[in-house]
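Reading a protein record of the kind used here takes only a little practice. The integers have meaning only within a learned vocabulary of local backbone shapes. With that in mind, consider the following protein and its fold in token form:
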Amino acid sequence: MQRWANPLFHVAAQLAGLSLLCTLLMVLFSITGRLWPSVAITGADAYAGYFTAATAFLALAPTLKRGEHIRVTLIFNHLGPRAQHVLDVVCHALALLMAGALALYSVRLVLQSRSFMDISTGLDATPLWIPQLGMAVGCVLFALAFLTDLIRLLQGESLHNPSGELARTE
């Protein structure tokens, strides 16, 4: 499972980077439009917001897989190896449940927005299911990342770096 999931996480990271670049471009177009109204792009502010949200959600899974989410280890570091493993499994199972619910409801939101033909209230009148796709895809991949990590933990593998560090951001 890890073999085919890792390329998906890599693509999500690349899409998050591209989305971040698009956010920058939309902000620049918005600024340019204020200076020279003849080159204004309708809805540039809204598109900057859409791309910012897509960036955040698409980056969730790759960030988790790189071990760069903030992890509080106050209790974890005071436990023995067996208790640490049990706590790791329980936390990953709970995180999978929450990420799965988030994924389910975000996919449902996209489907409802598409079926109701929801559009943004701005001048751009963008169909809302299009910018919501970034959130839905990011949430599904986030749940998949927790699932792959949970499977590894249940198989007895360790998520620790070779140095013994859990993450660089503890």
Notes: Residues 14 and 137 are 13 Å apart (CA to CA). The chain has a mean pLDDT of 89.
